[in-house]
Amino acid sequence: MIEFIRGYVDYVCPEYVVIDHHGIGYEILTPNPFVFRESRAATVTVYTYEYVREDVHALYGFLTREERNLFAKLLQVSGIGPKGGLAILAAGRPDELVQAIEEENEAFLCKFPGVGKKTARQMILDLKGKLTVFSAPRPAAPISGELAEAVVALKALGYAEREIEKIIPALREETMSTEQYIKRALALLLK
Predict the structure, then answer these.
(1) DSSP label of 110
(2) What whole-number distance in Å separates Cα of residue 167 and Cα of residue 184?
(3) Per CATH, the architecture of 66-134 is what?
């Protein structure tokens, strides 16, 4: 697989860019080719995904590895092909897409071109919990004392960190003992 291509932007059109790498022009399909227009005089790096099928051999390009990896995850969803994956990435920000999948927001996902209710549901089923590396990390306020001990206990009980993070704001509202925090947390988690 070709990890990336580094070269000069030779041509930009609505579907693709052509990157000149030592005299060879690579046609690379991208979500938004016009982001490369400003880079015509400078060397650019395009992270690529090589798509090979019986009748197709194409390069898809992205500004970042994360965007490229998200595209690869989208291709794993039944009903989404390369054109659909590009359309989804072109129509929204990757962090919004990840958030919609994690929150099971079908209405938001249906706004993307070519995504109906069935495909939105399939995206949620196939990708929920697998895209946390693509979401922007939010700085968490420090937890100390009894609440920190309760969080450690919840993790030991097998609860995922993202589940625990959702209930922490509700737990911060009161000052309790470690045992009381655990009981309150379990009640919130079981809702």
Answers:
(1) T
(2) 10
(3) Orthogonal Bundle (1.10)
Helix axes 82-91, 65-75, angle to 10 degrees: 130
The encoded tokens of residue 5 equal: 């291509």
The H or E element containing residue 170 is helix 161-172
Asked whether residue 70 carries a pLDDT value surpassing 80, the answer given is yes
Two tokens, residue 50: 């090589």
What residue spans define the domains of the chain?
4-62, 66-134, 145-189
Cβ atoms of 178 and 149 within 8 Å: the answer is: yes
pLDDT of residue 120: 92
pLDDT of 163 over the 90 cut: no
Which of 122 and 159 is assigned the larger pLDDT?
122
* Alpha-carbon gap, residue 58 to 51, rounded angstroms: 5
In sequence order, the 6+-apart residues with CB closer than 8 A to the CB of 26 are 5, 7, 18, 19, 59
Q: Class of 4-62 per CATH?
A: mainly beta
Q: Quote the pTM value.
A: 0.67
Distance between CA atoms of residues 76 and 58, nearest Å: 17
Q: Quick check: 46 and 5 in contact, CB under 8 A? A: yes
Give the pLDDT confidence score for residue 131 in this predicted structure: 81
